[in-house]
Amino acid sequence: MPATTIHLVRHGEVFNPNHVLYERLPDFHLSSRGVRMAQATARYIAAHSGLNHAAAVYSSPLDRTRETAGEILKALNSVREERGEQPLELTTDERVIEAGNEFRGKRIGHGDGALWRPENLRLIRNLHKPSWGESYDHIGQRMSDFVYEKVGEYPGEQVIVVSHESPIYSFRHLMETGSAEHWMWKRHTALASVTSFTFDSETRELLAVAYADPAAGVQ
């Protein structure tokens, strides 16, 4: 029975000294610690006998995910070169992008442009079903469309996908409970973590979910 594993990797820490809710805004890059986190996860992937045989690497088109994926590709392609294999290239896909959010550009804090102003708080009506942006159901569905497409494209293979906290956890919650809706405070998706979903390549039945946090000790 061939199995396909889709590894959803969260990007590393972002340089954000002004505490902006950056959502899908451009020019938010990894911090120096974020780069080290991405490198730690890249080393973990390169050393893992299954992961380092990945057939493809995908990411969201945003800066922070592409930079994280770049570190992973450097480590993977070094191993592939030693084995005499062709290097992998990054493919971006809009379906694994960060959640849409009406608060993008707001700051966590006080003063003009701060999130906690009355006109902004009026949008927060139900934390379980976001009223301020893209619903968890929609996030889960687009992630599901992407993942099942790749299960079909790469039977028996490993695929690495660099995405964001909300899409990764919404998809996991959908797979484990049948619903993408969840409490954001209960997410278990650390920076640069790897959440892996293994499917029967023929029936597309979910066989296992695994989680690793290779960058937990990065300072």
Automatic annotation (TrEMBL):
<dbReference type="InterPro" id="IPR029033">
    <property type="entry name" value="His_PPase_superfam"/>
</dbReference>
<dbReference type="GO" id="GO:0016791">
    <property type="term" value="F:phosphatase activity"/>
</dbReference>
<protein>
    <submittedName>
        <fullName>Phosphoglycerate mutase</fullName>
    </submittedName>
</protein>
<dbReference type="Pfam" id="PF00300">
    <property type="entry name" value="His_Phos_1"/>
</dbReference>
<dbReference type="InterPro" id="IPR050275">
    <property type="entry name" value="PGM_Phosphatase"/>
</dbReference>
<dbReference type="InterPro" id="IPR013078">
    <property type="entry name" value="His_Pase_superF_clade-1"/>
</dbReference>
<dbReference type="GO" id="GO:0005737">
    <property type="term" value="C:cytoplasm"/>
</dbReference>
